[in-house]
Amino acid sequence: MKIQRQLAPSAFDVFGVYWPPFHIPSRLAQRSARALRQLVAPDYCAACDAPVAPDTVFCASCGPCPAAPPLTGIEEGWVAGAYAPPLSTAILRMKFGQRADIADRLAGLLRAGDLGGRLIVPVPLHYSRLVERGFNPSALLSKRLSERCGGEHAPWLLERWRDTPHQSHLSARERRDNVVGAFVARRDAAGRRAALIDDVITTGSTLVACTQALYAAGVVHVTVLALAATPTR
Questions:
Q1: Residues 202, 232: contact at Cβ < 8 Å?
Q2: In contact, 20 and 13? CB cutoff 8 Å
């Protein structure tokens, strides 16, 4: 079953976002594909792979999603929970365990209300980082969210044109300096409203830089949605 889960994203998730050898043309076809995948790989806990009831993200043993901490430094945003187990466990498995399939499970935690008509924009990876990892977790989350809320998935809107060092070992000030001018947005979306999607908020520097790039390109309103935020920011 684990083999089926790890193979499924190459057809349904990764290629559907970045290197599409095919295109699912309608929501009916999307639902049919999702039903087929549910048949071969039923719902499972995002943190440990234990079987769970439909539309349930974590099993009883792993526990509920931890309560979200307050957000600071972001103009308008919402986060599903704190970066702590089992949510942090699931995110680490998704990002560093080559488990792109877990993005489908975690996307159900993101609030989909009031996003219809917005552009659903993932925080982009630089091309070199994308090749290294094989997929962009934020783009997989945003794709699933757009299917739920009826918004337009727009992974093309933001580009990380400068390959910045990894943020994980930088101080808050170094993180801010690291992403200054790293993102550029196309002007195709001038006058539109956008929802910016990320997996984890630490200092918020990346999201602030992305938001500034979107506003500079003419987007009139940006709201941020993320899976998790670190409790101490």
A1: no
A2: no
